[in-house]
Amino acid sequence: MPETEQTPQAAETTTALFGKYEVGKLLGCGAFAKVYHARNTANGQSVAVKVINKKKVTATGLAGNVKREISIMSRLRHPHIVKLHEVLATKTKIYFIMEFAKGGELFAKIANKGRFSEDLSRRYFQQLISAVGFCHSRGVFHRDLKPENLLLDDKGNLKVSDFGLSAMKEQVRVDGMLHTLCGTPAYVAPEILAKRGYDGTKVDIWSCGVILFVLVAGYLPYNDPNLMVLYRKIYSGEFKCPRWFSPDLRRLLSRLMDTNPETRITVDEILRDSWFRKGYKAVKFYEEGFDFGVKVNGEEEDRTVNLNAFDLISFFSSGLNLTRLFGEGEEGERFMLRELPEKVVEKAEAAAKAEGLIVRKKKEGGVEIEVQNGDLVIGVEVYRLTAELVVVDVKRFGGDKVAFEDVWSNKLRPHFCVATTSNQDQTQSHAVSAD
């Protein structure tokens, strides 16, 4: 059977993918990826295999999105979030091995049934809020919540999926806001349309409100074939509830879809809401570690790392290197500092200027340092890890390794005074080759 229709190209000469997964029917496809049902030959477990075309995502500049999706899913372990088991790769494809949700998309259930009872809708909404609240507590904002991205397992429990448009707290700019325009039109919050920056937690809550409306009504609160008319409706915040909506549900929806993000209801407030709390049982679970291994052409490329989502520091210090997924080979370094992000950028800028180098600030944070009339460029990016720690990611673009070592290691790096202390809850320095 041709690869383009049913099965991804085998990474081994055996019929099983990497000699481990028997790939079955096609479940769905998008512009850059296809999802298949598969079976783990070792234990018979059903899994979903998301096959990503490297060439397509690289050509469209979306390689960073794939890396971020892996980073995000690796830190999320929750009963109502689709689990990422492992990531495999060949020269042309990346394979996400994920939990299989036998019940399919919630969207299909709504399309078939028309609408759900208020009680069933509440159950799904409770599970959704449990998952979304957990994401936010881990510094993750989904940004594309909709019924098509909500799956059901064989017991009818909800699973949040598709973190391809998600953002992490480290992407928040100095103004405390996210600025990337994304999401599905009918579910997008009004502040995203305003293009003045937005709070990731608030836009997710808005989308949850739209989803809840759709579950109980069977149709969208804001809808129009003309996109600009649709956006005007969303911006006005005017929607009408059907007669079968209870007064308590109407009240909650008005707070979920409050056009003012400052007064919009929060997750904590939702958890205390009288309509929400009816029959609610808080999710209790043990958050396991994540064994992350990247294989290229079936050979182990990165060492396996135990990554616990409670411990973000281990994620950045473990040596986990996603650049190999796309064959990138720039030298570089990654280390942590107990410093404010803006202070690190200031140090990088001052150090470069002291050496007579050209410095350009990047909109998303960090700087580019130009050496040898532009032949060598050193990129310095800073990401907030915790309230006290930042990760400094340094990469070489162009030039040669000798020049990079001379400029970065000998002239610029000493200005950062990187600590190399013990593991007793102190800052550690971790150099990571980016090739």
From TrEMBL:
GO biological process: signal transduction
CDD domains per UniProt: CIPK_C
GO molecular function, one term: protein serine kinase activity
Matches recorded under Pfam families: NAF, Pkinase
EC number: 2.7.11.1
InterPro entries: Kinase-like_dom_sf, NAF/FISL_domain, NAF_dom, Prot_kinase_dom, Protein_kinase_ATP_BS, Ser/Thr_kinase_AS
Coiled-coil region(s): none
KW Membrane (keyword) present: no
Residues binding ATP, per UniProt: K50
SUPFAM superfamilies according to UniProt: Protein kinase-like (PK-like) (SSF56112)
Keywords: ATP-binding, Kinase, Manganese, Nucleotide-binding, Serine/threonine-protein kinase, Transferase
NAF domain location: 302-327
Reactions that this protein is recorded to catalyse: L-seryl-[protein] + ATP = O-phospho-L-seryl-[protein] + ADP + H(+); L-threonyl-[protein] + ATP = O-phospho-L-threonyl-[protein] + ADP + H(+)
Cofactor(s) for this UniProt protein: Mn(2+)
Enzyme class: transferase
Residues of the Protein kinase domain: 21-276
Family membership noted in the UniProt record: Belongs to the protein kinase superfamily. CAMK Ser/Thr protein kinase family. SNF1 subfamily.
PANTHER family: CALCIUM/CALMODULIN-DEPENDENT PROTEIN KINASE KINASE-RELATED, CBL-INTERACTING SERINE_THREONINE-PROTEIN KINASE 11
Annotated protein name in UniProt: non-specific serine/threonine protein kinase
Organism: Cicer arietinum
Organism lineage: Eukaryota, Viridiplantae, Streptophyta, Embryophyta, Tracheophyta
Gene that this polypeptide is encoded by: LOC101488926
